[in-house]
Structures are given as structure tokens and as C-alpha cells.
Input
Amino acid sequence: MFGGEMPELPAEGYPDKRNNVGWGPRITSPRMDFLVLFLLYLALVLLGFVMICIGSKTHYLQGLTSRGAQIFSYIIPECLQRVMLRVLHYLFHTRNNTFVILHLILQGMVYTEYTWEIFGLCQQLEFSLYYLFLPYLLLGVNLVFFALTCVADPGTITKANELLFLQVYEFDEVMFPKNVRCPTCDLRKPARSKHCSVCDRCVHRFDHHCVWVNNCIGAWNTRYFLCYLWTLTASAATMALVSTVFLVRLAVMSDVYLQTYVDDLGHLQVVDTVFLVQYLFLTFPRIVFLVGFVMVLSFLLGGYLCFCLYLAATNQTTNEWYKGDRAWCQQCPHVARPPAAEPQVYRNIHSRGLWGNLREIFLPATARYERKKK
Output
């Protein structure tokens, strides 16, 4: 995958092999503290994401959020609260391209740093061009599916196709009862549909509203969303892998791991992993920061991709997965109901097996029917 000689890099950041003791910059404890805080920040981001995923199906997180909002209401001035609420309402409760633009800016910044520094240095180390150009290939495919997810109709229910959608899925009478009308659209609600308050429309097989693509995810664009998410995860993981291999190869070729250094107390110490990470961070701060960012992004996107694939394999939507606990709670003993009433147990009646479920997502029958009509 790679070979060749050491590229010409800043000499002040490398060990002095003449005495096998001195390093370029001496790393002091404040720098160590900065690195520890940086790693702690990454760990807190991952922990926060996991807690949100676990607590989203419980009332504990909602109660914690409401109590936190009450505390902040006493601290933040009322005028500032109104401004914040308006901003949050605009960002998350109205259709706008803010997150689409932010998505493209972040993606552009990451690939600019990769092109400006990592690509050229990897060429000097004679990395295979296949590995170096793979992130660009994934970027191109990702942007195609990103655009398709943004502009594709998710499955908007109208007067013209209302009867068609009513025949697609069976009503389970627990989560999706019959003869229910949407009070906003004044349409009969097909099974597995939901009215999106952001887009102000009813969507067939509604999954969720994604602010990053400024569109709902429904029956007709879930396939594009899954491909977009997969290519985005793959591009982040590939860039993290190439960048990490570059740093490891650089450390091996420069014999950094064989050196010793003098600590703050004047003692001679053998280079360990923590010190090596510090050294690389101080020598290539932007590259190491990029590696940390894309690694965290790869884990987050990978986890979310696995969750979406699980939903696809079991023929569930995010909306149904979230509402599943409430449907199950109808049989709980603390829920009041008439003595003669039969307990209603929610079960997934729409699963058709793995391949049938995937075929339903990537070849939705209603979409083919609509194209034939046109």
C-alpha cells in the first residue's frame, strides 16, 4: 500500500537522533492537559449520543430536559429566551436550508484539509492512488444520493392518491386504527402514515423529518436516504483509515517510537503511546484533529446506519419504533381501561421477511404505479 522514503517535513518537530534524548518541542503538562481535555470532549460527545439513543424511548430524558429548561429559564433573561425560541423554531420546525448548507460546508472543509495536507504527504510516501482517491469517489456518489434525498418526493398523500395509499398496508387497530382523518390535511390516514408538522403534509410510510436534507423520509425516498447514509459513513471511515495509516507510517519511518525524552522533572522516559499521540498532535494539529473528528463521525454514523438497517430488515420506521412502547403500554396494568376490554398487544404485522422488506424499500410498489399513471 505504501513505501518509499520519508517526505520532507518540518525538522523542528522530529527527534534529534544525535543524542537520542532531545525532542524538538518539549511537551509540558499544560499541553498534556489540553490533549486530555480534547479526548474527554470526544468521549462526552459519544456518551451524550448514546444516552440520547437510550433515553429517547423513555420519559426520563423528557423529564430531565424539562427540568433543565426550568433551571435555564431562571438564569437566562426573558428577552433572550424569546430570541432563542424563535431561532430554534426556525431551525427545527420550519423548512429551511440552514443544515443543508452547514452539511456542505463541513464536508467541504474536511475534504479541503484532506486534499491540502494528507493527500500530498501520502503521495510522497507513495501510497496507492486507489486508496487516496477512494474518499473522492465516495464523495461523488454521496452527493448524488444526498441531492436525490433532498428533492425526491417522500410519498406525499393527496386527494388524487389517497385511495391508492389506503390499500397498501393493513390497519393493525393499535398503532394505526381505521377511519382516522388528518385534522390538518382533511384526508383519511393510510396505515403507517403521519402528518409532518414541518413540511405540513401527510407522508406515506413516514419515517422521520431530517433537517440535514430538509425533507421528510418516507416510502419513496428511504432508499436514497439509506444509500446516502451508507456512502457518508464509508467516506468518513475511509478518510479516517487513510489518515491514521499516514500518521502510523510517519511515526514508524521517523523512529519516533524508539526515542526517549526528558520529562518536566528531568527524568529520562521511554516514549509511550500517550506521548506519541501528543507529539503527533503538536506536529500535525490539523491532521490529528481531522482524524479525531472523522473517527467520531464514523462511529456515530455507523451506529445510526446499523439502526436504520435494523429498521429496514424488520420493516419498521423510526416513527413506529418510537411509538412502539406506547402501543405496548396499552397492556400494562397501570393503564386504565374498561374491565371487559381485551388487552391490545402491538405486533409488527407488516414484516414480509428480510428480502421482502428490503424489496419494499428499494422497489416501492406505489412509486411504480404512480410512474405508470404518468
Observations:
- The beta strands are 194-196, 201-203, 208-210, 215-217, 260-262, 268-270.
- The longest strand covers residues 194-196.
- Residues 222-253 form the longest helix (32 residues).
- The CA atoms of residues 236 and 294 lie 5 Å apart.
